[in-house]
Amino acid sequence: MNYLLFKRWNDFSGWLVFLIAAFVYGMTIEPTASFWDCPEFISCAEKLQVGHPPGAPFYMLVGNLFTQFASDPSQVSRTVNFLNALLSAGCILFLFWSITRLVRSLLKEEKENLSVTDVIIILGSGLVGALAYTFSDTFWFSAVEGEVYAFSSFLTALVFWMILRWQDESDTVYGDRWIILIAYIIGLSIGVHLLNLLCIPAIVLVFYYQKYRTISLKGAIAAIALSGLLIVLILFVYIPGMADIGGWFELLFVNVLGFPFQTGLIVFLTITFFLLIAGIYRFKKRLINTALWCILMLTVGCTTYAVILIRANANTPLNENAPDNIFALKSYLNREQYESAPLLYGKTYASEPEYVPEGDYYKVKMKTGGAVYRPNREEGKYKVIRNKEEVCYSQNMLFSRMWNDRMASSYKSWSEGTDGAPTQKENLTYFFTYQLNYMYWRYFLWNFVGRQNDIQGHGEPEHGNWITGIPLLDNLRLGDQQLLPESLRQNKGHNVFYALPLLLGLVGIYWQWMRGKKGMQQFSVVFFLFFMTGLAIVLYLNQTPGQPRERDYAYAGSFYAFAIWI
Fold first, then answer.
1. Are 298 and 287 in contact (CB under 8 A)?
2. Does pTM surpass 0.90?
3. Are 180 and 136 in contact (CB under 8 A)?
4. In this structure, what are the phi and psi dihedrals at residue 147, rounded to the nearest 5 degrees?
5. Helical packing angle, 176-190 and 200-211, nearest 10°
6. What torsion do the CA atoms of 48, 51, 54, 55 make, to the nearest 10 degrees?
7. Mean pLDDT, to the nearest integer, of 391-395?
């Protein structure tokens, strides 16, 4: 079979999977709103209101478009939920095409003809992996409610498929357009959810393997390090840095030159776009030119946050944090209202504040941050209302996982800790038993092994565990499952897969790894997508025990990567 004929079959099969997913999700969408953030997102979409930090302006805009099709107010929730169903089906479409692209590259070179057996293997792999993810517990749940995670999953799938398309055209004059488009989509995704940034390591690895003739472990590590640096630059330098510089311009134009509020921000953005466009026309060297294009399109994508600023100034009924100026917007983007958790080094639940002498007394040592500005409408200037301060603690710990002093007893129950400050052994025990095992691997196994029920628990053997459906294995871990009350045994969230999806995925990993150098390179790409959208989030969030709801939705990207291996 020649390439063009295969492409038609591949396109047809992809759209067939899309229709299956769209039908299933469309038939099972929630008719109204469910718990937690869904009612807020639906309200924000309908009236373009300002939701909780860091906001989701692009999701609001697309959601608002869909609410226009509601026949009456009672149907608004349904239209937003239907948007999520379509986006989730789109995610399945790009998952299918990504799988077939990966499998084909391991079977035959791009221009070689395919046998009927090859086509069956390629399309069959795509169908199995895409449909396994379609009906997975976590993704199906997210697909039918008014939350941002369906949109985020769609953009993740789209970006991953785009970098695979770039591989096909990387040596042509048009190849760079895929990289520039990826930068734009990542910019848009910041206006949905930051999870899409975690695709960058996989993207950089694909770029490295395609562009460098001599591939080495050292080079791959350098590529991964570079990708980590890119994430840090976007998340901790670019986003807050743009707000900082915009704030400096605001102070200059408003406080010094006497212009109206927002003038400095508009001037700053105008200068930024002018310099980027001028740089694109000035620097013709391919690498620099492409990099400037990427920065420009990333910035254009991020401009959806203008919606937050505009609507906050309109003082909508729901106007959380009132980010009506660049200083409040920066606080909003940085999620400063939330408690921060240590990452590599920080306090424990037993840490005490540091004290420093002041005259005849001691006071708590504080780390002073920047000034907090608020607009004074009467004077037409920004005024400093306070300085940011943070308590300094003693008895800090490396890789502190047990940091919240309100959760001391819960930490001890998960780490088998004793009274007093936690030891590093207890700290790591908590990390492995709760953060890794209970809050990630349990969710992973829900999707690919089986789920006991949908009753949220906190470690007890009868609520919310993973099960295989094989009595011998389940009873050894959790006790005799036949002794559970009827309400739990007949729970609608009870699903057993006998670990078959997990076994298929492990076989897929083995098959990919054994396909030689290209297979190992491909494995590393999928692995870093799997790791960054799963275990890396666990490390970053540093969650406390007693979460108010199950958090499996946050790791849907990781389960997406495992579906590729299936």
1. no
2. yes
3. no
4. -120, 170
5. 170
6. -20
7. 89
Tell me what the pLDDT averaged over the chain comes to: 93
The DSSP-derived string for 78-113 is HHHHHHHHHHHHHHHHHHHHHHHHHHHHHHS-TTS-
**Can you say whether the dihedral through the CA atoms of 441, 445, 448, 454 is positive or negative?**
negative
Classify strands 361-364 and 355-358 as parallel, antiparallel or unpaired: antiparallel
Give the separation between CA 246 and CA 262, rounded to whole angstroms. 9
- Encoded tokens for 299: 């910035």
Other Cβ atoms within 10 Å of 384 Cβ, number:
10
Which SS3 state, helix, strand or coil, does residue 33 take? coil
Q: How far apart are CA 494 and CA 464, in angstroms?
A: 9
pLDDT at 12 over 90: yes
Tokens standing for 541? 């969030």
pLDDT computed for residue 110 by the predictor:
66
pLDDT attached to residue 380: 92
**497, 448 contact by CB (below 8 A):** yes
**Contact indicator for 349, 402 with CB cutoff of 8 Å:** yes
Q: How confident is the model at residue 395 (pLDDT cuts 50, 70, 90)?
A: confident
Encode pLDDT of 399-433 as tens digits: 999 999 999 999 999 998 878 889 999 999 999 99
* Mean pLDDT score, 172-189: 93
Q: Exposed (0-12), middle (13-18) or buried (19+): which is 280, by Cβ within 10 Å? A: middle
Pairwise CA distance, residues 353 & 394, whole Å: 6
CA neighbours closer than 13 Å in the CB half-sphere of residue 553: 18
Cβ atoms 227, 201 nearer than 8 A: yes
- Other C-beta atoms closer than 10 Å to the C-beta of 487 total 9
